[in-house]
TrEMBL record:
InterPro entries: DUF2953
The protein's name: DUF2953 domain-containing protein
Any Pfam family the entry gives: DUF2953
């Protein structure tokens, strides 16, 4: 009898520990490589390194425009999942966000206009992120113009953590709505 009660208490305690565990996702992108790590209780559980297949360095303004069109087309393909992702992110904490971009064109006026466009995109992304995540510290977002050369170089790093119980709760509520 006491053994069964002891086993039940241990199982219950393990279940509570699992529900309150903090899962941390660390995402780092530096042209042309993605590094993603998942940690639980600070212990590395899974690590991915992926190389980008295609170059994102434009050779002309038309190439850059086509790349932006392709990015927006890809976003439209996955846009149906945004409401479900937003429900999960409201329970997540964004601990760090660092996003630096260097962009250049052969013409200084074009470079300036493009830098303004990139700042606009980053500003919109900043507001969407701040309204859907709890944030721990200020973001480090920069755009550096480079003149008289075609260049696009970006690096991105973020750390997001979520309690497993909160993630499970959001996933269950998403499944109920579908």
């Amino acid at each position: 009898m006491w053994i069964a009660i002891s086993i039940a208490i241990v199982v219950l305690l393990l279940f509570l520990v699992v529900l309150t565990a903090k899962v941390t996702f660390q995402i780092h992108y530096a042209t042309p490589e993605w590094n993603i790590q998942i940690r639980v209780f600070g212990i590395l559980i899974r690590k991915w390194q992926m190389k980008q297949n295609s170059s994102i360095e434009p050779s002309s303004s038309k190439d850059l425009k086509q790349q932006l069109v392709d990015i927006f087309a890809d976003l439209q393909k996955i846009s149906h999942s945004f409401p479900y992702l937003l429900r999960i992110t409201r329970n997540a904490e964004l601990q760090q966000l660092r996003w630096h971009t260097m962009i250049g064109m052969s013409d200084a006026a074009s470079a300036g206009a493009l830098v303004g466009f990139v700042w606009t995109i980053k500003g919109i992304a900043n507001q969407v992120i701040r309204s859907n995540f709890r944030t721990a510290e200020p973001f480090d977002i920069q755009v550096q113009p480079i003149f008289n050369t075609f260049l696009f170089n970006t690096s991105f790093q973020c750390i997001v953590s979520i309690r497993t119980g909160k993630a499970m709760q959001a996933i269950i509520s998403n499944a109920r709505e579908r």
